[in-house]
Amino acid sequence: MKTLISFMLIMVTAQIFSQKIDTWERRYGDELSEKGKKIIRTTDSNYLISCNVYTTEEKDMIWLIAIDQNGDSLWTRKIGGGYENFYLNDLDTISDGNLYFAYGKDSGSGLGQLAYVSKKSPNIEEIWTKEYWNMPSLGIFASAVTGTADSGCVVTGIITESFDSSIGFLEKFDKDGNSVAYHQLESTLHDSIFIPYNRIEALMSRPGMFEEEYVAVGNMQTPDKIYPYIKVFVDSLNLFMENIVSFENLNYLFEGFDVLSNKYVIFGDSKMFDLD
Which residue in 135, 159, 162, 233 has its CB near the most CB atoms, within 10 A? Predict the structure, then answer.
């Protein structure tokens, strides 16, 4: 009997390892001018890929590619072109299938970039758009956006006020595009042409004990050091009990994060890692 059980286990194991994992690979685009930004799963169980397309004949554009679970293209859409450059920085989907976009555009001069937050339908039709254009600054950058439980969104970005200062911010909008909360990050001023900054790179919403919370990873840079950090903001965009985890390290920057088994996995950009 023992021999029979062992034989059956060996057969089952052999069958499991003989099965091939179903994988596929796709390439979208025919030039070396597309830069993928993000891929998200939509409410219809398909996927949406966002890219920035860099061209020479016309201005840079945003390129969206909807694919099914086999990687086959369902539809594509380009946003921008003409006289201004368009850059998509982040997007997120909410439970009703609508999407939020954080993107920017400029005239190609390098100064005066404008930031936009836009709510769009699953067919990428505009529902509303918030434009940051009337602030006295050298440029405004919308870096990340996350949908909220009430179908609104929170966007984070950075305002370059002058050649020697920049200020990060968070702003919350309801589902109709009304601003309901605003929070300005700690300012990092310095009297030199070097621009220190305090900037959130990625943002994620989660249910809190009493209200919705927003987890952010970002970087603060001074002329002397870089401080990657994790912060948790409550629904009013104030810090959660002054919650902050700061890392003093000149060797890496936080770029984004995700959730794995109820823990956060943070990834970034590094000159050198020294890990135990």
Answer: 233
Please name the amino acid found at residue 85. N
Q: Which residues pair with 123 in a beta bridge?
A: none
The two three-digit tokens of residue 201, written as one number? 């790179």
- What CA–CA distance (Å, rounded) separates 152 from 228? 28
Question: What are residue 188's DSSP bridge partners?
Answer: none
Among 153, 161, 148, 146, residue whose Cα is nearest residue 198: 161
For residues 98 and 169, what is the distance between their CA atoms, to the nearest angstrom?
Answer: 24
Separation between Cα atoms, residue 124 and residue 118, nearest integer Å: 10
Q: For residue range 235-264, what is the model confidence (pLDDT) as tens digits?
A: 889 888 767 787 876 678 888 888 887 788
**CA 14/CA 28 separation, integer angstroms:** 37
| Confidence class for position 4, pLDDT limits 50, 70, 90 | very low
Q: Which residues pair with 196 in a beta bridge?
A: none
Residue 7 phi/psi, 5-degree rounding, is: -65, -40
